[in-house]
Amino acid sequence: MRGKKKIGFVPTMGAFHEGHLSLLRAAQRACDYQVVSLFVNPLQFGPEEDFDRYPRDLPRDRAWALANHVDLLFLPKADEIVPVDLETFVSVESLSRRWEGASRPQHFRGVATIVAKLFQIVRPDIAYFGQKDYQQATIIRQMVRDLYFDIKIKVMPTLREKDGLAKSSRNALLSHEDRAAATVLYRALCSVQQSIRAGTTDCHLLKKGIESIFKKEPRAQLDYAAFCDPNRLEPIRHVTGQAVLLLAAKVGSVRLIDNLLVRPHSAWRNAR
Amino acid sequence: MRGKKKIGFVPTMGAFHEGHLSLLRAAQRACDYQVVSLFVNPLQFGPEEDFDRYPRDLPRDRAWALANHVDLLFLPKADEIVPVDLETFVSVESLSRRWEGASRPQHFRGVATIVAKLFQIVRPDIAYFGQKDYQQATIIRQMVRDLYFDIKIKVMPTLREKDGLAKSSRNALLSHEDRAAATVLYRALCSVQQSIRAGTTDCHLLKKGIESIFKKEPRAQLDYAAFCDPNRLEPIRHVTGQAVLLLAAKVGSVRLIDNLLVRPHSAWRNAR
To answer: CATH number, domain at B185?
Structure first.
């Protein structure tokens, strides 16, 4: 198809949900041919992490791909992509050490390496990522720029359940009680949104608000709430322009992340 | 030219000599269009190394490229290839830690990163490297395999001066006396060749012979003499099949490397 058709690529770890569907739909709108890869990447899980219990349901995912008119469902074998003698790794240095990278030391090296390999195999025109994994999308953008991949990266908005919980394959791992508690991430984001609209720009104050919301939810443990510049992901002290709030928490035994793009109320007014 | 002509690529750091010419001639024999890049890669030099005094003579190199019918001499600017916000690095792990990598910790990460970038820009059909930098060529082969570069790697034999010294841009940095002493590397390789032909296969014994040759040359300091399997570069104890001897030494203030592919005399006979 290469060179004849515009190729859209959605790299996934399977356990498809509406978040994946929105990426696929975007690819279908913009491209002539869609490739969805399904590969639960062992390199992006730490030794103590949930690789073994990560949700897998290949028959269901195959049916989903068929029903949603995926042109090519790419199912590489683990020992093809990560052979025992794999020696070459791609890392996006300082961006990978912060936030999720601080909690998960080899995580983004694993992501970047496998996405680079998939990009080299598929060589798409456009690749689609979800905003839910904001730091991941930022790292992929940087890798594409640094290694001159001839690929356009599109980041699609986070889809949410009715109660606001960001759609994620890992939500399936939550117990009934933890599932209810997991809305704490979204509630924290909304409260920050409101505080900023009310004129608060001090990140320290905004963070205090987040912490007090988490304190009322004993099933959830906040890992970090970080206000950052949206490209370098360096921490900021005041929301003076476009910024991103990155949030990570453990709910029961499941680690969840979410994020929000914010800008000060005055900037909203100026933008009108 | 891409897709229409077969593109040959010779990545270099300039200061062209006959070694480069032999790579170019091989590209001209096999390809329709030749790209030679000239980029003194800052990432492959350690902080205490000879980046600043590495030989540079752009007018001479331009004339050389013209005289030798290079189709495209690619002269990227340092801040285009290594911008201040470069974050992405390619490393070929265990192969890069041994031998030259042990003496030059970030060297091969710098090589692999820049060669990956040049490969992505040029996207050649065939790329040419010299056997003189044996470990480098091995690492590039591994990177190409691991990251699915659609590029064939050709490694061309080392060219030598009349007295056996391997051609290298760094030879220009040798003083008159050190230039004479530098043949010690070739003399060591030849003596190993002879010992193996005489039936010696014990690498410890062969190494003793190398050390005694270096002891007679006070201007030269042996860094390592390593008998290895030719692909993984892991040390071996006996030359029982195809093997490579890697040699590194400092002559005066200049670090030189050389190598020799060897196999036991019996294997030679069996091969006939």
So the answer is: 3.30.1300.10
Q: Are residues B179 and B142 in the same domain?
A: no
> Do B39 and B121 share a structural domain?
yes
d(CA A239, CA A244): 9
**Sole residue written with tokens 């320290």:** A204
| CB-based contact, A142 to chain B, within 8 Å | yes
Domain boundary among B156, B185, B203: B156
pLDDT of B58-81, one tens digit each? 999 999 999 999 999 999 999 999
Q: How many CB atoms lie within 10 A of CB B3?
A: 7
On whether both A12 and A80 belong to a single domain, the answer is: yes
Out of A3, A89, A149, closest to residue B91 by CB: A89
pLDDT tens digits, residue range B9-58?
Answer: 999 999 999 999 999 999 999 999 999 999 999 999 999 898 999 999 99
Instruction: Provide the pLDDT for residue A272.
Output: 45
Put simply, whether B95 touches A (Cβ < 8 Å) is yes
pTM score of the predicted model: 0.94
The tens digit of pLDDT for each residue in B146-170 reads 999 999 999 999 999 999 999 999 9
Average pLDDT, chain B: 95
Q: Which chain B residues are within 8 Å of A121, Cβ to Cβ? A: 148
Show the domain range for A19.
Answer: 7-156
Task: Give me A217's structure tokens.
Answer: 């939810």
Position A72 in a domain: yes
Kindly provide the ipTM of the predicted complex, given to two decimals.
Answer: 0.92
Task: Enumerate residue ranges in chain A where pLDDT < 70.
Answer: 267-272
Quick check: B249 contacting A, CB < 8 Å? no
- Given a cut of 60, whether residue B172 has pLDDT beyond it is yes
Does A144 lie in the same domain as A15?
Answer: yes
A87 touches chain B (CB under 8 A): yes
Instruction: Assess whether B141 and B186 both reside in one domain.
Output: no
The answer to whether B20 is a known catalytic residue is yes
Same domain, B137 and B261: no
User: Is the residue at B162 inside a domain?
Assistant: no
Nearest by CB: B88 against A88, A121, A147: A147
Q: Which of A122, A147, A231 should we substitute to test contact with B (largest number of B Cβ atoms within 10 Å)?
A: A147
Token readout for A96 is 């990978």
Residue B217 inside a domain? The answer is: yes
Number of domains in chain B: 2
For position B3, what pLDDT does the model report?
Answer: 86
Query: Residue A154's beta-bridge partner residues?
Result: A128
Which of chain A's residues have a Cβ under 8 Å away from the Cβ of B90? Answer: 88-90, 147
Domain holding A37: CATH number?
3.40.50.620
Question: Do A142 and B87 lie within an 8 Å CB cutoff?
Answer: yes
